[in-house]
Amino acid sequence: MSRREQILDVALELLERDGVQALTMRAIGEAVGMRAPSLYKHVPDKQSLEAGLIARGLTAQAQVFARAKTLTALARAYRGWAREHPHLYRLMTDGPLPRDLLPPGVEDAAAAPLLAVTGSVAQARALWGLAHGLISLELAGRFPPGADVDAAWRVGIAAFTATTTKGRTP
Amino acid sequence: MSRREQILDVALELLERDGVQALTMRAIGEAVGMRAPSLYKHVPDKQSLEAGLIARGLTAQAQVFARAKTLTALARAYRGWAREHPHLYRLMTDGPLPRDLLPPGVEDAAAAPLLAVTGSVAQARALWGLAHGLISLELAGRFPPGADVDAAWRVGIAAFTATTTKGRTP
DNA sequence: AACCCTAAGCTAACACCGTTAGCCAACCGC
DNA sequence: GCGGTTGGCTAACGGTGTTAGCTTAGGGTT
């Protein structure tokens, strides 16, 4: 295992455990057993390190989402993944995608299941917007305490299933 | 005009013009004509200053959204406001709402039009999720360049109008 | 075997961030 | 006139990402 991958490993662990504000070059260095400046012998800068984490998240998503064959199952999988990896999910979705730092195809791989489960690109994007919006508001603590988030998901998914499967049911 | 409001004024201008990474205590101080530490004579800390900006954003949203009488008009207004104030919108939606630092009622005021235009709280939250998700992905540059974001909005809104206005049309 | 070059660690330091401590001048009420 | 509050200042602290420059170990070539 290359040193870079080892650094990404401990950075991911650090991020998932303690959140994005704990993802510090010095903290990563300590966890990997070196001083912060030495990290720069293996990683050009922090942005590229974060891009590596984002790439891992996208491929992990692609694997999980591919198992969901229906719109409802995919929505459940999407929410579930985000709740299992809240800090990574936020790192992945806050800020623009560093596409030039990502291995090619990884973005499409994560998006493919959405396309498979809806009828068109526009429908896939709208569903993505719904799912991302709901989970993003949930993770950011924007809903009032005690809000019935499940009900919002049910309503949203119902609206989409009514539309996207119309006339396509076998 | 109190000094605090003046500080909020220039902070808001700074944020909307140069983005959140330019919203620095030193930069605010310079723009308002004093050194950064002197700001603390008028504002307890940066978090409260940001809460002031968020409160302004919420009341501005409440005023604009209240004019939208249909679901479609509200969605258009929501997207339009966010695109006119992208940095403020992101400041308002990234991170949890500092409810204890906000004037009471301002959160509800901004949310009320969503409730008025849908049938239930769950529908309002689902629609909010859709709108927030789409604009958030758009502002973060997550859609591929050249993506037809308008089409995604049309599809999403269509899904919701089909559901929420069912049986309620006059 | 002697040499050199590269890889990979280190410390010191820089510029910037939010924030605190402590000082000082101006102004206001008595 | 005088004391206290208000509102500015500088200096500084601990934190961030990052760079410069040094050192040491290891491997390859002659």
From TrEMBL, chains A, B:
InterPro entries named in the record: Homeodomain-like_sf, HTH-type_TetR-like_transc_reg, HTH_TetR, MT1864/Rv1816-like_C, Tet_transcr_reg_TetR-rel_C_sf
Transmembrane segments annotated in the record for this chain: none
Domain annotation HTH tetR-type: ranges: 1-61
Pfam family, one: TetR_N
Alphabetically ordered keywords of this record: DNA-binding, Transcription, Transcription regulation
Domain of life: Bacteria
Transcription regulation found in the keyword field: yes
PROSITE patterns: HTH_TETR_2
DNA bind region: 24-43
Protein name per UniProt: TetR family transcriptional regulator
Organism encoding this protein: Asanoa iriomotensis
